[in-house]
């Protein structure tokens, strides 16, 4: 049976000393050169002869060629040179001098990768379009948005800050709702003592007119009825009282004589019935003479105030509320504003703040409040003369006669005792200039009955200084 192996003697069985038959020639493919043997100097004379240790001819390795091509023989690579992959050696037939090209790989994988990429792009587009449509339907707000925010902090503030002042003063401030037979209004007040006395403006309680109702709402929302203890139109101040209310917190009183222009202040009230409203500003001026009221035409309800001016916003409804300093102490009672179209008027008038607010100094308010609580009436300091309110010159001129036709200088009044005469023009009070009769009344009302004043008088072109002690008259 021919198994493809050479037949005959065993080509590997050669006896020593016997002349072995040379192996039969091997058929080689046409064109393949016969391998050549280089002479070995150690196997030729004089070093030796032919033997089994002659170096083998160089092994011919196939050079990879494109599929279907004929490999080009070449020398074996040097030691350490990269070897062809095992697959090439397995496919190499040294007798046929051919190499089976490896099957192409990766084509199916690349086709599958492209399909996956296309599917991923489609899914991404569908998801992105859905998210965009959702955001558009929800006014541009993406779902589950988390925005940065400051952490919580303690609610306390420095006592002299606006927030600290407001926190201290608000429990003592109340809102008044007044209803009368023909009108009603809203104002502000603040607690004077634990007995329930509350200080406010006269024009706030005026609509009640003795038969109306006054309702007091505290900062915490508790409501109580109030009654008028006393009021005075000349000072534009009134005191009302509530009963059956526990836990009242009086607001401490400051000293308006210590106030300086530029000092920070806080106004608290219920402008346009917005209770517990806090505004802030500074003292813009001191001793600002203002008059307010006078609707009756007889001058009996005109308020004369030597006021503190502030730029803290004050509006209708702030009337009667406290103007407090940096220690949350009352230094004034908010009473009037300067409106762009209505002049100086009580804040009950329907006009807005333009940064010109006026408050009754608390020193004056304290004295009047004490008198109203103790007697139900307030006293007015007077000099015992009748002024010519039609005088247009500089200063306050003493009239020629009183309204009832009597003498302009009362015979038993302080003015007569000091030597003031009819026709004298008073130009200063304690060195402070006065320019009109209203200013003189304001300066006088800023003092108490019994105070001594020095007046500068222009009498027939000559200045005369007179000293008098203020008298007392009952207010209305």
Automatic annotation (TrEMBL):
InterPro entries in UniProt: Chloro_Bact_Ser_Proteases (IPR051201), PDZ (IPR001478), PDZ_sf (IPR036034), Peptidase_S1_PA (IPR009003), Peptidase_S1_PA_chymotrypsin (IPR043504), Peptidase_S1C (IPR001940)
Protein name (record): Trypsin-like peptidase domain-containing protein
Keywords (A to Z) from UniProt: Hydrolase, Membrane, Protease, Transmembrane, Transmembrane helix
One GO BP: proteolysis
Family annotation (SMART domains): PDZ (SM00228)
GO MF term set: serine-type endopeptidase activity
Comp. bias regions, Pro residues: 21-33, 42-65, 72-87
Family membership noted in the UniProt record: Belongs to the peptidase S1C family.
Transmembrane segments: 114-135
SUPFAM superfamilies per UniProt: PDZ domain-like, Trypsin-like serine proteases
PANTHER family reported in the protein's UniProt record: PEPTIDASE S12 (PTHR43343), PROTEASE DO-LIKE 8, CHLOROPLASTIC (PTHR43343:SF3)
Domain PDZ as annotated: residue spans: 381-461
Pfam (any one): PDZ_2
Chain segments carrying region Disordered: 1-93
């Amino acid at each position: 049976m021919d198994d493809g192996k050479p037949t005959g003697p065993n080509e590997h069985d050669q006896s020593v000393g016997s002349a072995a038959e040379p192996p039969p020639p091997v058929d080689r493919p046409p064109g393949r050169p016969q391998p050549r043997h280089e002479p070995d100097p150690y196997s030729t004379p004089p070093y030796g002869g032919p033997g089994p240790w002659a170096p083998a001819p160089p092994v011919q390795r196939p050079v990879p060629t494109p599929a279907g091509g004929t490999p080009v023989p070449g020398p074996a690579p040097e030691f350490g040179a990269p070897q062809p992959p095992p697959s090439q050696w397995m496919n190499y037939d040294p007798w046929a001098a051919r190499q089976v090209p490896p099957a192409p790989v990766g084509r199916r994988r690349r086709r599958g990768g492209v399909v996956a990429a296309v599917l991923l792009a489609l899914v991404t587009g569908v998801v992105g379009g859905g998210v965009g449509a959702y955001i558009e339907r929800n006014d541009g707000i993406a779902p589950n948005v988390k925005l940065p925010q400051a952490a919580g902090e303690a609610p306390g503030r420095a006592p002299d800050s606006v927030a600290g002042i407001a926190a201290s003063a608000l429990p003592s401030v109340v809102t008044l709702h007044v209803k009368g037979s023909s009108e009603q209004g809203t104002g502000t007040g603040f607690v004077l003592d634990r007995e329930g006395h509350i200080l406010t403006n006269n024009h706030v309680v005026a609509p009640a007119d003795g038969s109306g109702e006054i309702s007091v709402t505290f900062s915490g929302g508790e409501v109580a009825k109030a009654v008028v203890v006393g009021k005075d139109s000349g000072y534009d101040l009134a005191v009302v009282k509530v009963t059956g209310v526990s836990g009242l917190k009086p607001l401490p009183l400051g000293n308006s004589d210590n106030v300086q222009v530029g000092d920070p202040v806080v106004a608290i009230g219920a402008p346009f019935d917005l209770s517990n409203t806090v505004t802030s500003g500074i003292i813009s001026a001191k001793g600002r003479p203002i008059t307010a009221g006078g609707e009756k035409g007889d001058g009996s309800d005109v308020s004369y105030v030597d006021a503190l001016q502030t730029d803290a916003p004050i509006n209708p409804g702030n009337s009667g509320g406290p103007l407090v300093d940096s220690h949350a102490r009352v230094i004034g009672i908010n009473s009037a504003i300067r409106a762009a179209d209505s002049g100086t008027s009580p804040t009950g008038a329907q006009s807005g703040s333009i940064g010109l607010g006026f408050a009754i100094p608390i020193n004056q308010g304290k004295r009047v409040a004490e008198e109203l609580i103790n007697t139900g009436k307030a006293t007015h300091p007077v000099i015992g003369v009748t002024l010519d309110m039609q005088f247009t010159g500089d200063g306050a001129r003493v009239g020629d006669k009183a309204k009832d036709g009597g003498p302009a200088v009362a015979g038993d009044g302080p003015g007569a005792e000091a030597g003031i005469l009819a026709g004298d023009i008073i130009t200063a009070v304690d060195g402070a200039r006065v320019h009109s009769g209203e200013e003189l009344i304001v300066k006088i009302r800023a003092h108490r009955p019994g105070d001594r004043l020095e007046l500068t008088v222009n009498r027939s072109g000559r200045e005369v200084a007179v000293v008098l002690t203020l008298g007392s008259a009952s207010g209305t």
